[in-house]
Design goal:
The structure is a homodimer of 480-residue chains.
Chain A (H helix, E strand, L loop, with lengths): L13 H11 L3 E2 L9 E2 L1 H20 L3 E2 L5 E3 H4 L3 H7 L4 E6 L2 E9 L4 H11 L8 E10 L14 E11 L2 H22 L4 E4 L11 E8 L4 E12 L10 E2 L5 E2 L2 E7 L1 H12 L16 E6 L7 H16 L4 E3 L6 H10 L4 E6 H5 L2 E6 L4 E6 L3 H26 L1 E3 L3 H7 L5 E6 L3 H11 L2 E6 L19 E8 L1
Parallel strand pairs in A: 3-7, 11-23, 15-16, 15-17, 20-21
Antiparallel strand pairs in A: 1-2, 4-6, 5-6, 7-8, 8-14, 9-10, 9-22, 10-11, 11-14, 12-13, 17-18, 18-19, 21-23, 22-23
C-alpha cells in the first residue's frame, strides 16, 4: 500500500494486474501453505459476504429454506449415481483417518452436495404435500483442481451457494430453472456484470444432469468464465437415491429435481475484474464496505478543529441516511489516502479542507470516472443519492459496452481461426456434433459454450466450422 | 408433526425430551450416515444464523474484521506449538489423499485455526502501526469426539466463531478479554441464557493458553455446558510462529495475543434447552423465524372472506412494523396448527375467527406463559411491542430463577457427596491443588469449573473437600 505507482495495465496483462491488486490491496493472501487454498482478507470478505446476501435474499423470497449439511460425505454415497461419481472422483479430497485411527469408511470433502442431500430427501419427502421442497446452503466446496489455480477464479476450496429443489412435476422443475435465471440476471445486473445465459452442449453437462444452463461472463484477457449454473436433473438423482412421494391417488412417484449453483467466489472475482482499472477496484455501492470515505485535508501545522468537526457532522449525517461511511483520520498524507481508497474501490470520496469549510461545501470524488465536483453542504444528501444511481448505471453500461464489443459473428472456419487468439466470444451457426466441437477446440482453442436461453436464435444455413447443416446458433470462446 | 401428544417431561428426562424435540419439530436430522455429523434444518438454521449475526455485529462494532481461512491446515503447522498439538492430535480428522493420489503432506480439518492464522499474522504484522489486529471468522470446526455425541451439544462438526487478536501490550490483551466478556454477557442476556463467567483452573486451559476464561450455563439435567471461551495466549503462539513487530524505538517484539470462541451450536442448544417446555421450544423474539404466527379460524363450511381479509391486513400491518410474520393458511385444522407453532416456539400466535372479526379484536396467545388475551384492533401494535419486551423479560427471569435455585453453597465433603448426583452447581472454598480437583472428580463426579471473574469472591477458611487452606472460591458441577 506504500508504493504510489499505478498497477500494470489491466488490458495488457490481466493476470499480473489481478494478482498484484489482490496482494497490494490486501484482498487475498496466496501465501497460505497449501496449494490452491487462499486466505480471504476483510475487504474481499465483505464483497463475498455481500454477494452471498444478495442471493440468499432472492432465494428466501422465492420460497427456499436455508439448511446446513455436513462438510463430509461417505464415499459410498458419492458412488450411488454413476455419472456423478465419474465426474468428480478425480477431484475429491478424502479424509481417511481421525484421532490417529483409520476411519471405517473414507469420507469425501463435499465437491458438491447432491449425494449428501438426496439420502435425506428420501427421508423427508413422503407425500405430494411435502412438495415443492426448495433448500439451499451457503458453504465452501473442495475440488482438487489439477489446472493452475488462481485466487477466486480456480481454487481448491471456494465459496458458493447450492440449491437442491424437488418438484412433483417436470413443468415445475423447468419453471424453477427460469426462476434461477431470473434471480441470476437480476443480481448480475445489480452488480453490473455482463453475461450470456446459455444452455450447455450435451457433452458439457454437470455430471448426472439432463440439461445444464450456465451464465458466462468474460474476463479482460478474453476467457469466458462460468459464474453460475442451473441443472435440470429429472429423475437422475431421485431414482438412485430412492426419493419418492405419494401423489393424490396414492401412486408412488419420483420427484423431478433441480440444482442451482451461483459461484460466489467467481462472482466476486468478476466484480473485481470487470470494473477494475489501473488504479485498482471500482466497486458498486451494494458490495462496498466503505461506500463513502471522508478525507480531512488539513493545512500543515494549522488548527484543524473546523475541518474535523465538519467531517464528523457529515459522517453522522450520511450514516443516518443509511450509507456505510468511513472517515480516514489516520496520520497518512492525503495523497496516500487517495491512493489507498482508490485501490480499494470505494465509490465516493469526500475531501474536506479549509476551502470546503469556508465555502460551506465539500469536494466529491467519484471513483468510476475519477472526477471531482464541488457540492454545497445543503445538497450533499441529494447529490450522493443521485451519484449512487449514476455510478451503478455508468459502470454497468461501460461493462456491457466492452462485453458487446467482444461478441463477434463469424461464419467461416478461416475467420474462426483468425480471431481465435484475440479474446472474442464468437457467435456461429453450429451442427451440434460433439466431434465438430472437439475439432474446433483442438484447432482454434475455442470451446462451444452453448446456445442462448434468453432469446430465440433460429439456425439457418451451415455450421461455420464443418459446413454440415446448422441446428443451432452457439457461442464459443476460450474458457477459463 | 402429526402426533398430538406432548413431549416427555423436560425435567424428568432431558435427553429424550431434547432428542424428540429436534426430531419432531424437524430442527435437526441425526440420521445422516456419518456418526457425529448432523443436518441442520431450516428452523434450526435460522436460530444458529441469528446467533451468528448477534456476535458478528458486536465483534465488528468493537473493531474486528471478518476473514475466511482455509478449512485445511498442514499437519506441520499444527505441530509448531507443542502443547497445542498435544491437546488436539487425538481429535483431528486428516485428509491424506486427493484425486486418487496421496498428498505430499497430510492436511488436518481445522479443529481450531490458530495454526492456520499465525503463519499469516507473521506476514501481515510488521510494525506497531499494524496493531491492534483483530480478526474473526464464522466457520465450522471438526473434532473427532470419542464421547457419545449429541446434536449441537457434542458433535464432530460444529458451528462457532473464532477471533484471533494481536496487541502490542499485555494490558490491551487483558482488556480484550474483558471486552469479550462484555460481548458474551450482553448477548447471553439478550437470549435469556443464564451463565457464570469463570476463570478455569490451570489444568483446564485451552491447549497452549496462559489463562482460559469460560462461560458456563446449566442444562436441565444438571450438567454444566461451556458455551464460550476466551484465552489469553501471551507469547505462546506469537513466539513459535515468529510473529513480530517493530515498536516505536525499532525493537522487534512479539505481540500479545488472545482468542475468543463463542460456540454457536451450543448456544443454539442452550436456547432450546433453557426456555423449552413440554410443548416444545419457547423462542426469544430475536432468534425466532416467525415471531408472530397468524391462524385463521373459520367455522366449518362457512364463508370466510372477512377472516381472510382481516388476517391479510394484520400481516401487512405487522410486517410494516418490522416483525417476521407468517399466516398459516394451510388446510390443517386449527388445533394442529396450534400444536405445530407451539412446538416451533413462535413467541406470539394471533387467532382470528368470526368472533374476532365481529368484535374488532384479535386473540393473542403468548407462548411463554401459554396464555390468551383479547386485544382490540386499534391496540394490536402497541400490545405486541409490549409483549415482545415482556416475553424477553419473563423468559430471562424464569431461566435465571431456575439457574439460581441450582447454585448451592457447600462447605464440607459429606455435603458435596450428598448432592453430587442432584444436578447442582456447587460453590465451595478450594485449595487450588490439581490433585484435590482430581479427587473431587473421581469421588463425586463433579468438576471444578473455576472462579468467578465478574465479581471478587474472597477465600477464607479451608478447602471444602480436603481441608487445606482455601485460596479461592470455585464452582463445581457435573460437566457435559
Amino acid at each position: 500500500m506504500s508504493s504510489k505507482k499505478r498497477l500494470i495495465s489491466k488490458e495488457s496483462d490481466f493476470g499480473t494486474w489481478y494478482d498484484d491488486l489482490l496482494s497490494s490491496a490486501a484482498l487475498a493472501d496466496n501465501r497460505y501453505n497449501v496449494k490452491g487454498f487462499i486466505v480471504i482478507r476483510p475487504d474481499l470478505f465483505f464483497i463475498i459476504n455481500s454477494v452471498y446476501g444478495m442471493f440468499e435474499k432472492e432465494l428466501v423470497d422465492s420460497g427456499h429454506d436455508q439448511v446446513l449439511f455436513p462438510t463430509v460425505i461417505p464415499m459410498s454415497n458419492l458412488r450411488r449415481e454413476a455419472e456423478h461419481v465419474k465426474g468428480f472422483e478425480d477431484q475429491v479430497f478424502i479424509v481417511e483417518s481421525a484421532g490417529g485411527e483409520k476411519l471405517e469408511e473414507p469420507l469425501a470433502l463435499r465437491p458438491t452436495s447432491e449425494t449428501a442431500v438426496y439420502p435425506m430427501l428420501s427421508l423427508w419427502i413422503r407425500s405430494h404435500r411435502d412438495l415443492p421442497m426448495r433448500l439451499f446452503q451457503s458453504v465452501t466446496v473442495f475440488r482438487h483442481e489439477t489446472k493452475a489455480t488462481r485466487p477466486l477464479l480456480r481454487a481448491r476450496e471456494f465459496s458458493w451457494i447450492e440449491t437442491h429443489d424437488a418438484f412433483a412435476t417436470d413443468k415445475e422443475a423447468k419453471d424453477q430453472v427460469q426462476e434461477d435465471a431470473r434471480i441470476s440476471s437480476k443480481i448480475f445486473d445489480e452488480l453490473g456484470i455482463p453475461f450470456l445465459p446459455l444452455q450447455r452442449e450435451p457433452d458439457d453437462r454437470f455430471p448426472g444432469a439432463e440439461e445444464t444452463f450456465a451464465y458466462d461472463t468474460l474476463l479482460p484477457d478474453g476467457h469466458a468464465l462460468q459464474i453460475a449454473t442451473t441443472h435440470l436433473l429429472g429423475h437422475r438423482f431421485s431414482k438412485p437415491f430412492d426419493v419418492g412421494f405419494l401423489d393424490e391417488k396414492g401412486n408412488r412417484l419420483h420427484p423431478y429435481t433441480t440444482c442451482f449453483g451461483p459461484g460466489i467466489s467467481r462472482i466476486a472475482a468478476s466484480i473485481i475484474a470487470t470494473h477494475g482499472d489501473d488504479y485498482g477496484m471500482v466497486l458498486p455501492f451494494n458490495v462496498s464496505r466503505r461506500q463513502i470515505v471522508i478525507v480531512p485535508i488539513p493545512k500543515k501545522g494549522e488548527e484543524e478543529v473546523s475541518i474535523r468537526e465538519k467531517c464528523q457532522a457529515l459522517e453522522r449525517q450520511l450514516k443516518a441516511n443509511g450509507y456505510r461511511v468511513f472517515t480516514d483520520s489516520s496520520e497518512d498524507r492525503p495523497g496516500g489516502k487517495f491512493y489507498k481508497w482508490e485501490q480499494l474501490g470505494s465509490p465516493l470520496r469526500i475531501e474536506i479542507g479549509h476551502r470546503e469549510v469556508e465555502q460551506n461545501a465539500v469536494t466529491i470524488f467519484r471513483r468510476d470516472l475519477r472526477e471531482r465536483e464541488t457540492v454545497g453542504d445543503q445538497d450533499i444528501s441529494k447529490r450522493i443519492s443521485e451519484l449512487s444511481k449514476e455510478i451503478q448505471k455508468t459502470t454497468r453500461e461501460k461493462a456491457w459496452s466492452w462485453f458487446k464489443s467482444k461478441l463477434k459473428d463469424v461464419s467461416v472456419r478461416a475467420d474462426i481461426l483468425k480471431i481465435a487468439k484475440k479474446g472474442y466470444i464468437i457467435r456461429m451457426q453450429y451442427c451440434g456434433q460433439e466431434e465438430c466441437g472437439n475439432d474446433i477446440k483442438k484447432d482454434s482453442g475455442l470451446e462451444v459454450r452453448g446456445k442462448r436461453i434468453d432469446i430465440e436464435e433460429e439456425p439457418s444455413g451451415k455450421c461455420a466450422w464443418c459446413g454440415a447443416p446448422s441446428v443451432r446458433i452457439v457461442y464459443a470462446a476460450k474458457s477459463y
